[in-house]
Amino acid sequence: PIEVRFNSSPVVNNASLNVTICDNNADGAENFNWAENLKNKLTTESGMSIRVFNTYQEAFTALPNQLGLTQIREGNYKVYARVQSASGCFSIAEVSMNVSFNSIKANDITKFICFDGTEDKTINLMDYYSEMLGNPSGVNVAFFESASYAQSNSREIPPNQKIEDDGDYISKNFYARFSNGSCYTIKRIRIIL
After folding, report:
1. What is the Cα–Cα distance from 183 to 37, expressed in whole angstroms?
2. Is 0.85 topped by the overall pTM?
3. Which terminus, N or C, of the chain has the lesser number of Cβ atoms within 10 Å?
4. What are the counts of helices (DSSP H) followed by strands (DSSP E) for the chain?
């Protein structure tokens, strides 16, 4: 005799998710842990893996090495969650998203400063704080020599900086990291002598 056993697909529910999240750098997308945020809304079964896709077709045909979505964007839209058991059986749930972003509105700035080509110039980066921010109330600022240091919030520099380069055209970039709790944005301060 041949014995055939069928594994059942996970039982899933369609869901809706309301999310308010900080749009760091105001770029319209944020990293998002879909599985963590959806697991209790889609199924009560334990041990399920959850991957989220833009379309039903993408979710249905996904290969095991396809991660699915890793970011969230603002707006009202639908995504499709592939809920899969260890046996490989899966079900697809429709998720209605309602996402709103908070952000810190700030602008890059370029400042032209006259100098004789050899003198040392001392600048205070705090002088540009309120000009860069739309609404500076309650927003902290830290300064960095590179965008990557500002992104990782490491190697902060003091606001008073001395530019000692000589020449007819000196361009120096600094980066301001504006933050309010877990929300932040990074903008460039370009000084041209």
Report:
1. 19
2. no
3. N
4. 4, 12
Contact criterion met (CB below 8 Å) for 50 and 34: yes
For the segment 110-135, the average pLDDT, to the nearest whole number, is: 88
Q: Identify the bridge partners of residue 111 per DSSP, sorted by sequence position.
A: 191
**Residue labelled with tokens 């603002």:** 74
Q: What is the separation of C-alpha 51 from the centre of its chain, rounded to a whole number of angstroms? A: 19
Q: Distance (Å, rounded) from C-alpha 58 to C-alpha 61?
A: 5
Q: Residue 177's Cα: distance from chain center in Å?
A: 14
Distance (Å, rounded) from C-alpha 15 to C-alpha 2? Answer: 40
Inter-residue contact 174 to 163 (CB < 8 Å): no
Residue 133 and residue 52 in contact, taking contact as beta carbons nearer than 8 Å? no
> Is the per-residue pLDDT at 136 higher than 90?
no
pLDDT over 90 percentage in the chain? 59
